[in-house]
Design brief:
It is a single chain. This protein has 3 helices and 9 strands. By secondary structure, the protein is an alpha+beta fold. Strands 1, 2, 3, 4, 5, 6, 7, 8 and 9 form a 9-stranded antiparallel β-sheet that branches. The longest helix has 14 residues, at 11-24.
């Protein structure tokens, strides 16, 4: 017998849930595309500072090359019945350009330190441009939480 779905959340509730996920989750899916449109999907660890996500991957791999070339990415957190989708602008940073404190925080949070992983690694700072969140079809009409880099509501 199927379980009854909870009632739809308000936009402020979904924003709070999204910010909780950004603060507490460690991994997300990164979807990028090559210049000729070939899609690529990979899981990466991340850190959220309240404004942008920081992740790291080899600049020479498909994800690193794609993000550096297009400067855009789509991120996904959560399962298929509690989705957060983020479209963001990408800034590529050399490993020594991120503060030691931020790099240490990333390493402590994720259990991975790209600063020791080899010279091909780069930081990728992703600034959200659009954020959507929904659980079920009843939340789809109001799924946008951020547009053009601006939250549409304050968390209640």
């Amino acid at each position: 017998m199927p379980e009854t779905a909870p009632p739809p959340r308000s936009r402020p509730e979904r924003r709070r849930d999204t910010e909780h996920r950004l603060t507490h989750d460690v991994d997300l899916w990164v979807a990028s595309a090559s210049a000729d449109g070939a899609p690529y999907l990979v899981p990466l660890s991340f850190d959220w500072d309240g404004e942008a996500l920081l992740t790291a991957t080899p600049a020479t791999g498909p994800t690193g090359r794609n993000m550096a070339a297009t400067r855009t990415v789509r991120l996904a957190l959560g399962g298929t019945r509690d989705v957060t989708m983020i479209d963001g602008d990408v800034e590529v940073l050399a490993l020594d350009t991120v503060s030691r404190e931020r790099g240490d925080r990333f390493a402590a949070r994720t259990g991975f330190d790209p600063r020791t992983a080899g010279p091909s690694y780069r930081w990728f700072r992703i600034t959200p441009r659009r954020v959507q969140a929904w659980r079920e079809v009843d939340e789809l009409p109001d799924r946008d939480l951020m547009r053009d880099g601006r939250w549409l509501t304050d968390p209640a």
